[in-house]
Amino acid sequence: MVFVIIVTVYYKKNKMKNTFKYFLLLIIILLFGACSKLNDNVPAAPEVNLHKEGILNPASKNFHGTLIKNLMWDMRGCQQCHAADYSGGIVESSCLTCHTQPEGPEACNTCHGDFSDPAKIAPPRDTEKNTSTDSVGVGAHVKHLYDNQIGKDIPCETCHKVPQQVYEAGHVDTELPAEIIFGDKAIINLGINSSYDATTATCSNTYCHGNWEFFRDSSANQFAYNSDRMIGNNQSVVWNVVDGTQAGCGSCHNLPPDGHSNAQISACGGCHSGIVDVNGEIVDSLRYKHINGEINVFGN
Fold it and tell me: Is 36 exposed, middle or buried (0-12, 13-18, 19+ CB in 10 A)?
């Protein structure tokens, strides 16, 4: 305002002389004053920090794994800064330093399984970080896949649709529990009615737990039958009870199976040679001849 008064007085004294020059001067003064006014008390630019403290600490509530879990495991937002292959991007911070598998953070063992061993993609360590077999997300995974002593290891596709990539339909796009879609050994013979009850964590009508029958009329070894068929026990098993009580010898079929000629367990190896010994223990080193959908006798 002071600048305006000074210029006005000066104008009256000098009337119209150099009008244009002083008008231009007025504009400059006003702009200078306005800019000075606008620059008073300008706050410092805030620090830009997308990730909160603890982003790399698994024990922190701000751990990036927890944040991604809350986003239904959708990591595509990370690619905006860290590049499509997570190699660093505009922030020059690579995710591949820790996520060393070819798929980077999208590797199967990132969210479940053994983070240090890409060959073990199934729990223990489920998506909720549980490791106890009491947890439904853990249950009998190890007994089926990695520590199976009574049959060949059970592949993931026996119970799940295995996705080819992380965002395939039916994988991370739905809430827990994981969908059970039986295949492979679960549905051999009568196992076409296999089912899983998520409320009780119970598998029913699976071939591998005794839902099968073999008919004497179609057998080359009819002498082994004392009925028109042999049948298993069709045992319903609770997935997260892993104490040996549901998978012991004689649990999925009687010893011998119902419909089989009477025999002591010590005699099993006589016909099922190379499969069991005189104690009824599985001795097939590759475990291909037990729980395989066939009756294997005389070494075949």
Answer: exposed
- The verdict on residue 86 lying in a domain is yes
Q: Is residue 47 part of a domain?
A: no
| Secondary element (H or E) of residue 33 | helix 19-38
pLDDT tens figures, 135-189: 999 999 999 999 998 888 899 999 999 999 999 999 999 999 999 999 999 999 9
Separation of alpha carbons 150 and 211, rounded Å: 17
CB 194 within 8 A of CB 205: yes
Q: Which residues contact 234 (CB under 8 A, 6 or more apart)?
A: 190, 205, 209, 210, 211
Q: How many domains does the chain have?
A: 1
Residue 87 is assigned to a structural domain of this protein:
yes
Does residue 79 belong to any structural domain of this protein? yes
14-53 pLDDT, tens digit per residue, is 445 555 555 555 555 555 555 445 555 555 544 445 788 9
What is the pTM for the complete model shown? 0.79
Is residue 246 within 8 Å of residue 239, measured between CB atoms? no
